[in-house]
Amino acid sequence: MSKIRIACPNCGNTGEVDESHRGRRALCNRCNTTFVIEAPVAELSGQAL
Ligand SMILES: [Zn+2]
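^ thats the input. predicted complex w/ zinc ion below
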């Protein structure tokens, strides 16, 4: 399982979640904003889309 990088749309706080969480909601631990986890901001694994 690989991790994807996410960023809070409200405060910009970044974090990593498991790729399987894509499409689910995440809770920012800084501002408590709930947002949908979308495609990774930066793909570090080198996989083609
Ligand atoms: Zn936030």
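The first strand starts at residue 3 and ends at 7.
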